[in-house]
Write a structure and sequence with these properties.
- The complex is a heterodimer of chains A (291) and B (286).
- By secondary structure, chain A is α/β, with parallel strands linked by helices.
- Chain A folds into two domains: 220 residues, P-loop containing nucleotide triphosphate hydrolases (Rossmann fold); 41 residues.
- A six-stranded mixed sheet of chain A has the order 5-6-7-3-8-9, sandwiched between helices. In chain A, strands 2-1-4 form a three-stranded antiparallel sheet, covered by helices on one side. A three-stranded antiparallel sheet of chain A has the order 11-10-12, with helices on one face.
- In chain A, α3 crosses α4.
- In chain B, α3 packs antiparallel against α4, α7 packs parallel to α11 and α10 packs antiparallel against α11.
- Chain B has one domain.
- The longest helix of chain B is centred in the first third of the chain and has 32 residues.
- Chain B contains eleven helices and no strands.
- Chain B is an all-alpha fold and 286 residues long.
- The chains are: A alpha/beta (291), B mainly alpha (286).
- Chains A and B meet through α2 and α3 of A and α1, α2 and α5 of B.
Chain lengths: 291, 286
């Protein structure tokens, strides 16, 4: 799956993972290989099995079958040493209502042998102004940033982020992306789940699309679903109304149009399928409603 | 591990990780801070028993429950306040934990701790330390009111202080462990109070807190004798009521040996129930 990297060297490796609840199959044979230092995004609609997969990797849930290894260790047998090396940002926020931001971050730093400086982490997630506020006074996005602070205070080798930017405003999301890029530059392996295609495109080295418990595609964001090979659509307007043409050679079409109009082509656009188009098509083909 | 990760390791500052004991103290401190800053829990757990003591104390007034002419006389209020002190210990240990832990589990606080290398026992040690501090405050408050308003005498011998100490500590440990174990019974944080409060009330009525134990129906006495509260009340009566009052007890004595035995048995039983019943995550997660 990842050329030149052996199984032992992978930060995260999953094969044939299955998990059912009662009569509901949540994960039906997922394979995954993430080399150290990679940012991998798991995309998929609600109920596709993203969280179940991630929580098995985090050692919170048991699995029915399959091989799972994170930092060379089976999370089902996770010990304290392993927990020291793995950072977790869960989907739900376990809040400490009446504690102040810096109190919570400082307290969690105590659990680790080599924690980052709590004030610095608070600064990095953009909560410095709120460091002395009780956590129940934070907005949804600020609470999420506190979650991230607690996930990275240990300076983990692998960081799991389950829908980290849900509830963020666009500016906060950009700031958060910068934070993730910084972490990635220091060599942290990051597995994140997200609903947001722009987020996957902005952050991930590779994305995996999961639907109905199976991984239906794994690729770089640019190449997902053969997106880079897809034909372009040239659209314009003439006397008869809007016109468009599918083509492998859009430049030629534009030149031809420019010549025939003798200059500006009215309402000219050249588009290729966005990641979202490709994703929705994939999900649709798998018979699942996009989230 | 990759070369990069190894370099990262070397570059990290060598901060000494807090030892287990100091971690437990820090955990207890955080728990305590959270508790005292939450007005509802402060009022419900610490002040409610004081309010009950004031209400029932006023109702019972100075009704004397010792046989006519016996000296020293004991009032119903005095009898009641010893029961309220035992109830205060139960409130901070049992009710408090059995109600707050399911809320924390619902919110994912427990799961968050499980995702860290914090040893499991540190979480429980933190709860126990917090409860111990709260129980101390509760007992001091209740004793203060009882001494000021209901002529309760503080123990006048070292022997009685010693009894006061071990009855309170054993009772608190038993209640705390039962509270932690019982936190597994409530399915959601919201259902906690509905499950826990009736149990506490039934125990209070049957164990001789609101009524004299010796006047209760035999079957009720038998029922209450299975649980710690009855024995905590009885132990505390031996501390705060005159020795002559022993003749008013069902057994004709305060049965301190049996008090110790039952409370110790509940400590062991509570620990086992904790190990069996405690859950870090909600049932729908697995």
């Amino acid at each position: 799956m990842v050329p030149g990297v052996t199984h032992e060297e992978l930060a995260i490796s999953v094969s044939g993972l299955r998990k059912s609840y009662a009569d509901n199959v949540a994960v039906a044979g997922v394979d995954l290989a993430v080399p150290p230092g990679e940012v991998f995004a798991l995309l998929g609609p609600n109920g596709a099995g993203k969280t179940t997969t991630v929580e098995i990797l985090e050692g919170f849930r048991t699995r029915d079958s399959g091989q799972v290894s994170v930092l060379g260790i089976d999370p089902a047998k996770a010990d304290r040493d392993w927990r020291r090396r793995v950072g977790i940002v869960l989907q739900g926020t376990g809040e400490f209502d009446e504690l102040k931001v810096h109190e919570v971050v400082r307290h969690f730093a105590r659990f680790y042998p080599h924690p980052a400086d709590p004030d610095e982490v608070i600064e990095r997630v953009g909560l410095s102004e709120k460091a002395n506020s009780r956590t129940h006074t934070l907005s949804g996005g600020q609470k999420r940033r506190l979650d991230v602070a607690l996930g990275i205070i240990s300076q983990p080798e692998v960081l799991f982020l389950d829908e980290p930017t849900t509830g963020f405003d666009p500016a906060a999301r950009r700031e958060f992306w910068d934070l993730i890029r910084q972490l990635s530059h220091t060599g942290t392996t990051i597995l994140l789940t997200t609903h947001y295609l722009d987020e996957a495109e902005a952050l991930a080295d590779r994305v995996g699309v999961i639907a109905r418990g199976t991984m239906i595609a794994v690729s770089t964001p640019a190449e997902l679903g053969g997106r880079h090979l897809a034909t372009a659509t040239v659209s314009w307007r003439d006397e008869g109304g809007p016109r468009s043409e599918e083509t492998d050679r859009p430049t030629e079409v534009v030149q031809r149009l420019a010549a025939s109009f003798g200059g500006e082509v009215p309402e000219l656009t050249v588009t290729r399928p966005t990641l979202e188009d490709v994703y929705l098509k994939m999900i649709g083909e798998n018979g699942q409603e996009p989230a | 591990m990759s070369a990069l990760a190894t370099e990262q390791e070397a570059a990290r500052p060598a901060v000494r990780q807090a030892g287990g004991l100091s971690l437990a103290l820090a955990q207890g401190g955080i728990e305590f801070k959270q508790f005292v800053r939450t007005r509802e829990s402060l009022v419900f757990t610490l002040l409610f028993p004081v309010m009950l003591m004031l209400i029932f104390g006023s109702i019972f007034g100075s009704v004397i429950i010792t046989p006519e002419g016996e000296v020293p006389a004991v009032t119903l209020s005095q009898y009641f306040v010893t029961g309220m002190i035992a109830s205060g210990i139960m409130a901070t240990g049992f009710q408090n934990l059995a109600i707050t832990i399911p809320i924390e589990r619902d919110r994912g606080v427990l799961k968050r701790y499980r995702g860290t290398p914090m040893p499991k026992w540190v979480f429980f040690a933190g709860k126990i330390l917090c409860v111990a501090a709260l129980a101390f405050i509760a007992v001091v408050l209740l004793l203060g009111v009882a001494v000021a308003l209901y002529d309760l005498r503080l123990p006048d011998t070292g022997q009685k202080w010693f009894t006061f100490g071990w009855v309170s500590v054993l009772g608190l440990i038993a209640c705390t462990l039962c509270g932690i174990a019982f936190s597994g019974v409530a399915k959601t944080g919201r259902s906690g109070p509905a499950v826990v409060t009736p149990i506490a009330l039934i125990l209070q009525f049957t164990s001789g807190v609101f009524f004299e134990y010796k006047d209760l129906p035999h079957w009720m006495q038998q029922f209450a004798a299975l649980f710690p509260l009855k024995w905590m009340c009885q132990g505390l009566r031996s501390v705060f009521l005159p020795e002559s009052f022993a003749s008013q007890e069902v057994a004709g004595s305060f049965e301190l040996g049996r008090v110790a035995l039952v409370l110790a048995a509940w400590c062991v039983g509570g620990l086992i129930l904790c190990l069996v019943g405690f859950r870090w995550t909600t049932k729908r997660e697995g």
